[in-house]
């Protein structure tokens, strides 16, 4: 059984030190025993506001959020019709905590609740302005019990935590590297290095502290099941000046869902999938799928399989489709055929930073529609659902093989084999093929290559094998022998399930960077030689290379006028490079290796691909000139829209649009964790 989080709130009826616990489980079943009212502790900072919890007030908050049916295309999920209204807010005695922000494009207020001037830094636990327990309890009641006080996943391993449980600790330790463990937790993410490693399982190789603290984890999360809860949480965070983060699955290499002292919007429970056989709207006609924002890639593939269609999705099974995947652009085994994940979007439903719920499409909020498809997550709002184009079911053929250095294959021959593959990058992707592969340094002058797989979308084996055979002949002519494993599948779902290796996460002994190499880097012999020399240098020095032969195919059947990094439109080689260090490495060792990755290995890659870019969701957390690398020429417009829709900076994430105006305090150079106070730069 998965680890079950429990939470315990306390409120103070006198404003002093005596507390009575109100216990709630993960879905927030709250005790009905409440005082008539209480005033905030004067040291809580929100002493200008008297919070009323009389039963009639609480009932008003919970019952006025009736379904608001709105005609949209397609129709909204039932929980998307449960929206917050101005009338509902005005009917409470605590409207100042939950009121909407100004209409987008109008000046933002320079003050927070109680008329307090907005501080330079976000309110942090222990600050005078941090909400008292009574206020958190009010928020929980207003949310219908959806608020979760954070208990780190590994807390059962520590005897000073109430959740201490040896059996649960063993479960967490055993499953720590499985992504699903972190996906199903409201705050945990998959790369603990940027959390600060403040609560690793006991005896984990990367455990650096003997105790367990929250570190970069959010202080509280909202397990949302309806739109009104997102609206209430956003309005509350804006009014109280609390840092806000959004967690879908936690896959982003930079842990964008982390943030010390934050309130997190957890979208995991929004799992609805609706198949629309004939979506006719905004100039599109054909099958589509409407997806709740908690839906993961494998779930989308399964739904498409059930309806005999194909949908563009990620390579990793647990990636959240409507989260950072589409927001960052979204590469896919289908990209060489039909383009990026973001290209397939027909409409999105989103809660804006001001708390209002809108639909973004070609005809509604078109500038937001442009920005949400590639301009990065945690920036313009919280997407609740997305509608994507579906294609007919297609066959997929695959090839897997390995080769390496040996007594008969020198290092030079090995790299000649790798370069031979790159000469086919344009040929393969031009007809819809895709490659996912790995190169590892296994010793001085020794290397290993694994193809996992080479993928022929919409190809039978009879079509796929002749396409690939010239490359295999080149390997044979070099003296490189392989044992090819060919397969043909009737659908994308079956091919994906049968070929891609399982994910492994949770380690803090490495970090990665990436580069989108233009196709000319592999077509032009001089550029190809320079590119492969830079790649070989990094791998020989200890880098681990994960490579994709991929393109963002042009597709007239969808709207590709979006904010996807223009570098994707030019690439046929997306390379991820990881630097590793001992699991028990000191911060100084990690800083040194991190510096080598960014300023030596990747500097050479940037030098041979000037003006190209990197993939936002799988990029270097220390990427120089990240605005250009991650967003390209779109950045000025994206920043303008950020200021329009989020003038107070409610949403922040590392390397997200507008993040250059903020900093997390107390960070070591090259190790920008989210374990610190978020402040506006002076």
UniProtKB/TrEMBL annotation:
Keywords: Oxidoreductase. Residues 214-393 form the FAD-binding PCMH-type domain. Pfam families: BBE, FAD_binding_4. The keyword RNA-binding does not apply. It comes from the Eukaryota. Belongs to the oxygen-dependent FAD-linked oxidoreductase family. This is FAD-binding PCMH-type domain-containing protein. It comes from Podospora pseudoanserina.
């Amino acid at each position: 059984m998965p680890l079950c989080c429990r939470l315990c709130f306390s409120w103070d009826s006198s404003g002093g030190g005596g507390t009575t616990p109100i216990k709630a489980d993960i879905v927030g079943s709250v005790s009905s025993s409440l005082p008539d009212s209480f005033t905030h502790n004067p040291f809580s900072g929100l002493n200008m506001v008297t919070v009323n919890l009389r039963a009639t007030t609480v009932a008003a908050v919970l019952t006025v959020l009736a379904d608001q049916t709105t005609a949209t295309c397609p129709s909204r999920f039932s929980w998307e019709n449960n929206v917050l209204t101005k009338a509902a807010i005005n009917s409470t005695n605590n409207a100042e905590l939950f009121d909407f922000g100004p209409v987008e494009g109008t000046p933002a207020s320079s003050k927070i609740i109680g008329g307090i001037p907005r501080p330079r830094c976000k309110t942090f636990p222990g600050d005078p302005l941090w909400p008292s327990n009574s206020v958190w309890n009010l928020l929980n009641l207003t949310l219908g019990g959806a608020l979760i006080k954070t208990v780190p996943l590994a807390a059962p391993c520590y005897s000073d935590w109430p959740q201490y449980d040896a059996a649960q600790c063993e479960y967490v330790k055993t499953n720590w590297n499985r992504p699903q463990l972190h996906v199903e937790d409201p705050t945990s993410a998959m790369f603990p290095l940027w959390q600060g490693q403040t609560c690793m399982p006991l005896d984990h190789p990367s455990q650096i502290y003997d105790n367990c603290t929250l570190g970069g984890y959010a202080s509280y999360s909202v397990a949302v099941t309806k739109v009104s809860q997102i609206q209430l949480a956003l309005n509350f965070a804006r009014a109280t000046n609390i840092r806000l983060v959004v967690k879908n699955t936690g896959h982003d290499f930079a842990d964008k869902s982390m943030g010390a002292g934050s309130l997190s919007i957890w979208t995991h429970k929004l799992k609805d999938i609706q198949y629309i056989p004939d979506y006719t709207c905004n100039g599109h006609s054909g099958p589509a799928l409407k997806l709740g924002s908690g839906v993961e890639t494998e779930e989308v593939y399964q739904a498409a399989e059930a309806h005999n269609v194909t949908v563009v999705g990620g390579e990793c099974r647990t990636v959240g489709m409507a989260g950072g995947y589409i927001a960052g652009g979204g590469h896919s085994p289908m990209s060489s055929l039909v383009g990026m994940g973001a290209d397939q979007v027909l409409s999105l439903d989103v809660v804006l930073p001001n708390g209002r719920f809108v639909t973004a499409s070609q005809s509604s909020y078109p500038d937001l529609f442009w920005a949400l498809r590639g301009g990065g997550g945690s920036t313009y709002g919280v997407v609740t659902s997305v509608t994507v184009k579906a294609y007919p079911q297609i066959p997929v053929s695959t090839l897997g093989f390995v080769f390496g250095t040996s007594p008969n294959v020198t290092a030079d021959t090995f790299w000649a084999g790798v370069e031979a593959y790159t000469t086919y990058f344009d040929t393969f992707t031009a007809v819809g093929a895709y490659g996912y592969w790995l190169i590892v340094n296994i010793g001085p002058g020794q290397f290993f290559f694994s193809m996992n797989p080479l993928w022929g979308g919409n190809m039978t084996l009879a079509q796929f094998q002749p396409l690939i055979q010239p490359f295999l002949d080149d390997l044979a002519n070099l003296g490189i022998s392989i044992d090819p494993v060919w397969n043909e599948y009737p659908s994308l779902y079956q091919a994906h399930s049968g070929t891609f290796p399982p994910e492994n996460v949770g380690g803090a002994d490495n970090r990665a960077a990436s580069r989108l190499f233009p196709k000319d880097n592999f077509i032009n012999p001089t550029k190809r030689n320079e590119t492969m020399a830079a790649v070989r240098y990094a791998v020989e020095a200890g880098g681990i290379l994960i490579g994709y032969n991929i393109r963002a195919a042009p597709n007239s059947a969808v709207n590709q006028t979006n904010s996807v990094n223009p570098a994707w439109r030019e690439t046929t080689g997306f390379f991820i490079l990881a630097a590793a260090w001992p699991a028990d490495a000191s911060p100084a060792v990690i800083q040194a290796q991190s510096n080598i990755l960014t300023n030596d290995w990747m500097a050479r890659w940037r030098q041979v691909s000037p003006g190209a870019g990197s993939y936002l969701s799988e990029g270097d957390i220390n990427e120089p000139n990240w605005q250009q690398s991650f967003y390209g020429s779109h950045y000025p417009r994206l920043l303008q829209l950020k200021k329009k829709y989020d003038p107070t900076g409610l949403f922040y994430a590392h390397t997200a649009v507008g993040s250059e105006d903020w900093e997390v305090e107390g960070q070591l150079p090259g190790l920008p964790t989210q374990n610190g106070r978020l402040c506006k730069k002076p």
